[in-house]
Amino acid sequence: MDIVILAVVIAVVVLGALGGLVVGSRRRKPLPPPPPAAPDITAPPAEPHVGEEAETPREEPRRTIEEVDLPAGAGPVVIEEPPAAEAPEIEIPEPTAGRLVRLRARLSRSQNALGKGLLTLLSREHLDEDTWEEIEDTLLTADVGVQPTQELVERLRERVKVLGTRTPEELRGLLREELITLVGPEMDRTVHTENAAGGPGVVMVVGVNGTGKTTTTGKLARVLVADGNTVVLGAADTFRAAAADQLQTWGERVGAHVVRGPEGGDPASVAFDAVKEGKEMAAGAVLIDTAGRLHTKTGLMDELGKVKRVVEKQAPLDEVLLVLDATTGQNGLVQARVFAEVVDITGIVLTKLDGTAKGGIVIAVQRELGVPVKLIGLGEGADDLAPFEPDAFVDALIGE
User: Fold this and answer.
1) What is its main location (predicted)?
2) What are the tens digits of pLDDT across the range 363-397?
3) Per the annotation, does 383 bind a ligand?
């Protein structure tokens, strides 16, 4: 028994010694280094936020204007005001008297083929049937039309037969006389701008798309201003975006007042207002630019008739001018016929007569409608619209 107790005591002592050794070794191990201190971070200036992110900005030191160093010699800052918009300069158009004579050279460059061709054929020593057929072909090619061609050839046959021997001067005089007769010197080609009731003359400009109605209206304003009239322009083409602006530019150049409405608005309303303002201003003439329309579209043509009826509630229409592109030749006659049925055409304006157009269209369109050609366009210039003068026109056809 004593042996057992002794063994237990020895075991306890041994275990205690071992435990002391382990604790001592643990105390001798180095401790890990402490974590580095967090760096000082300067918060950026607060930015303004909206809604839930909004916060009050931090106050930051700011310098006053006295503390800011200015460059040496710097004077007070002067803020320049933008220059006031200058009113457009009013142009004075050139007189219309004799304008076609001044533009005759431009017209003759593209029209001499007709006159020279006829003179060459008539100068032949023997005028047989083949020659007369060539003369007919020349006239038809120049868009003179079948009926006027037959009349002209018949009269030339008679006069050449009576004349006998023909000098170039005699032939030129003969051809000139017959062409002037065919053009119709007795027709009234005045653009009427005098109202019987004492108000302004009212002129409505109509035509198909692309014939140059707005440009023609602007140029016609210049013609009337050059003759001493005051003009009001009605921008009743509310369907083409740039039409009213274009007409406004034309009006400003000659000091004409422009009446316009909202884009896509009722054109009859604009035309009505233009005539009303023209009467209030005691203007000499009111020009109404209408929208281009296809002559085959019944609805559009009916609307044009409505514009005419609405305008006549304010004042009678003194002129309805149909603008035709002379380069379309005989195709333009179909358009002219339809427009004449809707709005009672009183005069024709032939544009682009200085290009590839053939001069005979003047004769054909007058014969087709029974109304005169009153104005012709001979170029892109502002004053290239001329009152039609039969003598000057024929002289340009047959050349010098």
Assistant:
1) membrane
2) 888 988 889 999 988 878 888 888 888 888 888 87
3) no
Strand order in the sheet with 285-289: 257-260, 231-235, 285-289, 201-206, 319-325, 347-351, 373-377, 385-387
The 10s digit of each residue's pLDDT in 133-157 is 999 998 888 888 899 999 999 999 8
Does the annotation place 296 within a ligand binding site?
Answer: no
**350 annotated as ligand-binding:** no
| pTM of the predicted model as reported, rounded to 2 decimal places | 0.73
Cα distances from 154 to residues 149, 190, 237, 267, in angstroms, run 9, 31, 46, 49
210 carries a ligand binding annotation: yes
User: Does the annotation list 289 as a binding residue?
Assistant: yes
Residue whose tokens read 């309303």: 269
Annotated binding residue 216: no
What residue ranges in 207-244 does DSSP mark as E strands? 231-235
C-beta separation of 271 from 235 below 8 A: no
- pLDDT bucket at 167, cuts 50 / 70 / 90: confident
Determine whether the annotation assigns residue 240 to a binding site. Answer: no
Q: Does residue 7 or residue 19 have the better pLDDT?
A: 7
CA 393/CA 110 separation, integer angstroms: 12
- pLDDT confidence band for 262 (50 / 70 / 90): confident
d(Cα 222, Cα 18) in Å, to the nearest integer? 126
Is 214 annotated as ligand-binding? yes
According to the annotation, is 290 in a ligand binding site? yes
Residue 16 counted as an annotated binding residue: no
Residue 56 marked as a ligand binder: no
